[in-house]
Amino acid sequence: MIIDLKTYGLTPDFERAAAGKPHAKLGRVVNQQRNLYRVLTATGELKAQLSGKFRHVATTQTEFPTVGDWVLLTALTSDRAQIQQVLPRRSVLARGSVHQAGQGQLIAANLDTVFICTSLNEEFNVRRLERYLTLAWESRATPVIVLTKMDLCRDLATKMAALETVSVGVETIICSVKEPASLAPLHQYTTPGRTVAFIGSSGVGKSTLINALLGRTELVTRTIRADDDKGRHTTTARQLLQLPTGGLVIDTPGMRELQLYAGNLDQTFGDVAQLATRCRFNDCSHQTEPGCAVRAAVERGELDPQRVVSYQKLQREMSYQDLNARQLEQAKIERMFGGKRAMQQVVRRAKKRR
Questions:
Q1: Class assignment of domain 265-317?
Q2: Which domain of life is it from (predicted)?
């Protein structure tokens, strides 16, 4: 069986990155369950584990493969292999580890679009959307807000008004699987070779949406509890699936608790960041300092005070806040490229192509 990996998102950059290792197989991680991976190669799917050298060299969890990664493998048998290397990522979605403070946990890699899902029932929460947007902007993929279950919403205008400030610069799609025509805007992001991921809390309808896009029931779904509008966790493993449109979709487990590992606060809170440039002090905390433009905007009624509180909370929470500039840059290099050496190789290849 021969598989055209370009239909699974292979780009010239990944081909060039793999060219230096002609004896290794190139593949994309399509499924992950703990330390076991399924990797799609040009000659079929392989079950893979990390090589001993990989485990020894890796220093952080963010260097390990995740669904969507392009990797180099050494075949052991006809259907088993060892992962030797993760190729530099175009984008990566990472959250803070629930169990290890200050550590990152990868969600998906090499995405073009991140669909941030929330349902238009009692689960709707603007502050939670700010948190997801902060995570998505940092990934380098394009965030899109997807409001699901519009058939259950009785106050759409009120919720859209609450979302207005948060969603600046981000497309918002309102849909319901009970109204297939409402799903049409999603298709523009699922063209051949492009990869999208659905993220959001448990029970907001991610798996149901993906099933609708697939045109079949691939993923297990459960209805929300009628008594409290809370969702039950259904997806337990990350996987990459090909859509009838030719695009690729990654389903991710619902997140009951979203800890930030890193995030782009300036993009998510552009209004606050712009006002902050007018503060008297560069390191203004927007609390008690004189000449604070952010507080002044709140007092004039031009800025929602809850938005400032959310901004400050996320700023304190992000694990990078205590790192100096050099440590911050090193942490980002490790997350995107797998280390400084890998980044230098990418730079050298780019210079040769000039």
A1: mainly alpha
A2: Bacteria
Q: How, if at all, do strands 172-174 and 142-148 pair? A: parallel
Query: What architecture is the 92-251 domain classified under in CATH?
Result: 3-Layer(aba) Sandwich (3.40)
Rounded to 5°, the CA angle 123-136-268 comes to: 85
| Residue 51 known to bind ligand | no
CATH architecture of the domain formed by 5-88: Beta Barrel (2.40)
Q: Is 284 annotated as a binding residue?
A: yes
User: Is 292 known as a binding-site position?
Assistant: yes
201 carries a ligand binding annotation: yes
- Tell whether 160 is in a known binding site: no
Distance CA 324, CA 351 (A): 29
**204 is annotated as contributing to ligand binding:** yes
CA atoms of 9 and 11, how far apart (whole Å): 6
> Does pTM surpass 0.85?
no
Q: Does the annotation list 200 as a binding residue? A: yes
207 is in an annotated binding site: yes
- Which residue is associated with the tokens 């197989």? 25
Query: According to the annotation, is 202 in a ligand binding site?
Result: yes
Q: How confident is the model over 194-246, as pLDDT tens digits?
A: 999 999 888 888 889 999 999 877 765 554 444 444 444 444 568 999 999 99
- Is-contact 122 154, C-beta < 8 A? no
Tell me if 206 is assigned to a ligand binding site: yes
- Domains of the chain, by residue range, sit at 5-88, 92-251, 265-317
**Is 343 marked as binding a ligand?**
no
